[in-house]
Amino acid sequence: MRRTRSRIALLTLSALVGSVLMATPPAGADPTGATATAGSGRSPLEGEERVRLVRIQLTGADMLDKVVAAGFDLEHGLRRVPTGIEGEAVVTAGQVAELEAMGVEILDDHESFAWSDEADGGFQVSGARAAQPASHEATVRVVRADWFTTKGQGFLYVEARTTEGQQADPVVEMQLENNSGRGTAFGFARTMSRFVDSGQYMFHRNLFKLDQRPSQIRVTSSTGGVAVGDVSDWLEDAPPPLTENRGYRYDFVDGYRTPQQLYARAHEIARQYPDIARIIYLPNQTNGYQRKAQATIGGTGEAAVVVSSAAWGHEGGNDITVEFVDRPGADLPLTVEVVGEAVRVLLAKDASGGLASTAAEVAAALEAGSQGLIDRAHPYRTNTGTGIVAATPAPVALTDFLDQKRVGAPEGEVPRGPATIPVLRIGKHRDGKKPGVLIQAQDHAREWVPATTTLETAERLVHNYRSDRETRKIVEDTDIFLILSNNPDGANYSFYNFASQRRNMTNHCPDENADPARRNSWGVDLNRNYRVGSGHDGYAGASTSCVSDTFQGPEKLSEPEAANIIWLVEKYSNIKFMMSVHSNGGQLFWQPGAYIADGRITTPRPPLGDEAFYWQSAARILSQVKAHRETVVTPENVGGSSDVLYSSAGNVREDLYHTYGIYAFGWEVGGSIYNPATGNWQGGSFQPVWEGDPQLVSGHAETMEYANGIMEMFRVAAEWGRDKKDPTSRLVPGDGRYSGPVDVRFETNEPATIYYTTDGSRPTLQSPRYEATEFREPGQVFHVTETTTFNWFSVDAAGNIEQNYDPTKKDRRNRYRTATITIRG
């Protein structure tokens, strides 16, 4: 079909970065941004340290938690491998040595783990039981077996679990075999990888390339037991994306966008399309793209003094100078003079005429005598300030360090001060009666593709509303809320000052971390600042250190950016779906998102029906991503985020799901892409080159494919809102007489939660819920040994109840389902 492309240029950024390595000024530039001349008394540590990406290997989740808690910046693309966890860290040269001292292995590119394409013969199995269907006593279970294709290659991903997997000595091994289709023998044996997280056995798994799709796999345990599972298709035969519709317009965004450009376009869309779009302003202003003006005077030793202005830099702080003066004479007191914005500290002299003021004394004098110009003065970091302060050769100019212009950043002054975040609301019926969908982009500042992806979806909605039937249905059947950048302060800092910035710009640090050399380490990780599964409550994956990239903030919802999200979902209670868009790991996940490390105690897992709905929705969303250029997010990267990525205490998804019942997804766009030329999976980056190889990593391609996925999420929500059909369910096997014990289970025709009783009572919403055998597995199996009556009903994701049964009150018809298993003998 013919495809129509349309681009709108929005103050296009010139060719931008290829990676976060552009976090430092160009060679020859003054790294401090200071106006003082050499020898002015500035500390060389005020200059930014160069950072780079290094590949690392961690032994497991315990080491990961320690590294994160120590403040190291680990990007999202962490990968579970048989020997632990691989990933990348954004570090300085000094931090590399610190990581190695903690036992972290620094990898070369060629050292990355790769699944073998060769059969290894497996291992000798003694006493293995014959293959059997899943039952209550099966020691080996196939969790999933998924076949997918990408770039002309076929892959099989398998997860299997053994009930004896927690044993560490001897380690339980699992052998995997597959056939070549129906009626063929099993073969191609290989040993599966054992996955242990935070000391807990998860499952065994493997991913490998095959020339032909198998129909079944067989998994055998070294301790006995064997299971056979059918192979399913993952993301195969997806319906064509909306971009294949005749006349459909897409490909609007032609480069990365600063927050100002994003917000300007949102306002323009609302002005151009008032019948379907408007702006909502979030009530809590950000703390602002602004800093106090600072200087570290006198080096970094015991005689050093860190000075911070009372006014923001742009409001006068940058005009202040501080000078330490050595006067002639003896027995002179320490005094402070102020002339305009010039602060002169007249240092004390002892009886012999020597300088006698300590750093601690000078700091106290500055705070007391600067006539309000200096708000904060203190010894350097953990120093006690006992050193004698020397005179400065010249006045030292304070600066907020925000005057640096990075190569490639857009021209123009960045607005200083607090920002009001607009929400672009799109929908024909914005009366709260249609299901709301919230898309939140750029919680993390350095993640530029999520913002362009979200803007691209907005453009597609308004430009295709009148001409494309499917888009019209989305706009008329949903109420869409788009936050193009939820962290404008941090994003501006990423564009203009420090490309690797992850957090907002709020400095909660005490004196020991408040000197300007720490400025790239300040801020709160907004996705660790929420209330459920919080680090404040002992959950792993957030830090109490104010210079950690996962700093959770001083308290829950301390940051206006996080408080705004709670305000939004409380004011607009029709919001039933949410996607928090991040980069760049390629995962799509939901709850549970956090756990207490000791015992790996997760936040509550969703009911089996919600879990099934998440999986069903994920398959639809990811199928549309694949349809653009065959990018496959593999099943190992889909599910509860604490299962597929890591524990992230205090994340927004957890709060919205458990507090408000919102189906809340997290999406790490920009995942690995298979490169048939090299036979490897190639990862992404936070700020990939915009126009790169269209089949590999580029910001433009990622924007297009993941916009496909968000559009499909809108369709999921629209269909959810139109769903008025009750689910159906059954007990398998059902009513009947059996000569001995029998295994039974529930089945539903769609994702649905089942509430049941076995004591003859009427089922209600307080009755036991039908649960999974184990996480990522189907429903449990009941081993019935005596005559038992099951009473139950099912509720689908849209809230429809089977047979129109009302579990909140009794009626004569008792429209719940019932089945009796009669055991004879």
From TrEMBL:
Q: Where is the signal peptide?
A: 1-29
- Disordered: annotated span: 26-46
Entry keywords, A to Z:
Carboxypeptidase, Hydrolase, Metalloprotease, Protease, Signal, Zinc
**UniProt biased composition (Low complexity):** 26-39
Cofactor(s) this protein requires: Zn(2+)
Name the PROSITE patterns for this protein: PEPTIDASE_M14
> Under the GO molecular function aspect, what terms does this record hold?
carboxypeptidase activity
Active site per UniProt: 668
From what superkingdom does this record's organism come?
Answer: Bacteria
Q: Which Pfam families match?
A: CHB_HEX_C_1, Peptidase_M14
The cross-references to Gene3D superfamilies, in alphabetical order and at most eight, read:
Zn peptidases
Keyword presence, Plastid: no
Domain annotation Peptidase M14: ranges: 378-710
Family named by the database record: Belongs to the peptidase M14 family.
Annotated protein name in UniProt: M14 family zinc carboxypeptidase
